[in-house]
Amino acid sequence: MKIDQSQLSLLKEPFGVIIKDDDINKESLNQEIGRAHKIIAVGDTTTEKLVSLGYIPDISVVDGKEKRIKKHKIFEYLTDKILHFENKPGELDEHIIAEILQLTQSKLESKIQFIIEGEEDLVALPFLMFSPDDWVICYGQPYHGLVIVHVNEDSRSRAKLIFNKVFNI
């Protein structure tokens, strides 16, 4: 699925609370995600920050890049399962969407890492659309900080609306 480039501005507005880069610490994360049922981290830097502060995501999505610049290696931490996908920039592969739908409807007992060959930026949208209440989605807002979204009916509806617009559905 290719994104409609004319709708990119819809993706610039953060979905949830932003913790500024300088304010990201154990205390600020405890306030925002301390009681989350499951934690999803989208992005290499987001995953590294969470893990370094003691929050092991239930699912992380990484592509080995930071601000589209290739890193020397993908950040590693203890996971139960690693899934590999291809996803072209400006697109969202349907296999990824299907896997997210399946995982978000399961009990999700293990820690999973998605390694994306290509670009992972848009993967937060299907997580926002399909995750149950009390899950938290974390992603980076370049040059601003870490966005924390508490999934609920409102965030799911907003994600679906934006998804439909940016993919012309």
Care to describe what's here?
The chain has one domain (5-166). The chain has helices at residues 26-33, 44-52, 94-104, 124-130, 153-166, and strands at residues 17-20, 38-42, 59-62, 65-66, 69-70, 81-87, 112-118, 135-141, 145-150. The longest helix is centred in the C-terminal third of the chain and has 14 residues, at 153-166. The strands form two sheets. Strands 1-9-8-2-3-7-6 form a seven-stranded mixed β-sheet, sandwiched between helices. A two-stranded antiparallel ribbon has the order 4-5. It is 29% helix and 26% strand. With 169 residues, it is an alpha/beta fold. The relative contact order is 0.24.
Summarize the structure.
With 169 residues, this protein is an alpha/beta fold.
Shape: globular
User: What is the string of helix and strand elements?
Assistant: EHEHEEEEHEHEEH
Number of domains: 1
The unreliable regions are none
Percent strand equals: 25-35%
- pLDDT averaged residue by residue: 92
Helix proportion: 25-40%
Task: Tell how many strands the DSSP assignment holds.
Answer: 9
Identify the strand order in the major beta sheet.
Answer: 1-9-8-2-3-7-6
Number of helices: 5
Structural class comes to alpha/beta
Distance between the termini: 10 Å
Using the CA coordinates, give the radius of gyration: 15 Å
Profile the largest sheet.
7 strands, mixed
Q: What topology does this entry show?
A:
Layout: E1 17-20, H1 26-33, E2 38-42, H2 44-52, E3 59-62, E4 65-66, E5 69-70, E6 81-87, H3 94-104, E7 112-118, H4 124-130, E8 135-141, E9 145-150, H5 153-166
Parallel strand pairs: 2-3, 2-8, 3-7, 6-7
Antiparallel strand pairs: 1-9, 4-5, 8-9
Helix pairs in contact: 4-5
